[in-house]
Design a protein that fits this description.
The chain contains twelve helices and 14 strands. The chain has about 350 residues and is α/β, with parallel strands linked by helices. It has two domains: about 15-235, Aspartate Aminotransferase, domain 2; about 240-360, Aspartate Aminotransferase, domain 1 (Alpha-Beta Complex), CATH 3.90.1150.10. A seven-stranded mixed beta sheet has the order 1-9-8-5-4-2-3, sandwiched between helices. It has a three-stranded antiparallel beta sheet with strand order 7-6-12, with no helix packed on it. Helix 6 links the parallel strand 4 (about 120-125) and strand 5. Helix 1 (about 15-25) runs antiparallel to helix 8 (about 230-260) and helix 3 (about 55-65) crosses helix 7 (about 195-205). The longest helix is centred in the last third of the chain and has 32 residues, at about 230-260. The chain starts with 12 loop residues before the first helix and ends with a helix.
Length: about 350
Amino acid sequence: MKKIPLSRVFLSEEVRQAALRALESGSYILTKECEAFETELADYTGTKQAVLCSSWTAGVFLLHHAMGVKPGDDVLVPSHTAFPSIEPMIHRGAKPVFIDIDETYCLDVDLIEAAITSRTVGILPVHLYGHPANLDRVLEIARKHHLWVLEDCAQAQGARFNGRRVGSMGDAGAFSFFPSKNLTVLGDGGCITTDDAALADKLRMLRNHGRKTKYVHELVGYNFRFNEIQAAIGRVGLRKIDMLNEHRRKVAARYTERLSEVVRTPPEKAWAYAVYHMYVIRTERRDALANYLQGKGIATGIHYPVPNHQQPAITKMYSDLPALPQTEAVVKEILSLPIYGELALEDVDYVCDSILEFFGEQ
């Protein structure tokens, strides 16, 4: 029986040699490979600065610290996202104010203004599954109400909104290099992108115990540093990211072409260049389909079965949580199909054939 994983990391001889080069360099934390990776990430994204950190979550925690997020602040964020999207703000004492989603699974921009109060300090749009949120409207509202915008780009490395890469349009962007992501460092890792040099400088200090030089600590910081081996690996992946994303788009196009008559396939807006971190379908027979595909050796996932406004950790903390009808409907029907940058199209056809068989169409 075929075995098709939900995702698979990009691993080549060039990646192995890069890791070995860093391993043998004698320098392991925040030196030449990290400096070069930061420069290359900023150039690729279209920002002046990129700051590496030990994970997306750590980077955003540092960012909220540097921006002065504090108890009593509200941050607007979709509920339909990975739980780490809201953890850093909660650790800073701020409250997530949950917004429902539109048909792209990103936050519904028509609902933002009604949620703004005197406590609102920022908006955190999530480019979920690799499809950008409607940033024109987000940024317009933010300017009107004097709010910051932090783009959650964890699933969207290389995605574009109206021709510009995500992570370059808000006050900052946050990326993840977790193994399943479009760009990985074969472990945890992340970065913050921004045009604000002073903010980037503060982030670099905070990630490294609040210092610029070894024995002088200007701030009380943290240890959220990055390492040379993973930076060397990431530099290779960054050079390959456009090719791998283009292949993801071919996989997505094949799925859409073959499955749109039996399931609801993900839309792609005219202003979007989606990079399909996940290819997510909807069907009322989700659980039965997942079980059937498992029997065919096909891995699937649900991203995410429990929305954040219904997570036990959140319902214990807050009593005034909203009803979000779109979010609450989709989590019962969504199913993530296998997709990665080197998935063979014949395997995509095997997945499609199996789904069509399930629905009695083949």
